[in-house]
Amino acid sequence: QVQLVESGGGLVQAGGSLRLSCAASGNFFSINTMGWYRQAPGKQRELVAIFISSGSTNYADSVKGRFTLSIDNAKNTVYLDLNSLKPEDTAVYYCTADIFRDHLQYRYWGQGTQVTVSS
Question: Which tens digits make up the pLDDT trace of 60-84?
Answer without folding.
Answer: 999 999 999 999 999 999 999 999 9
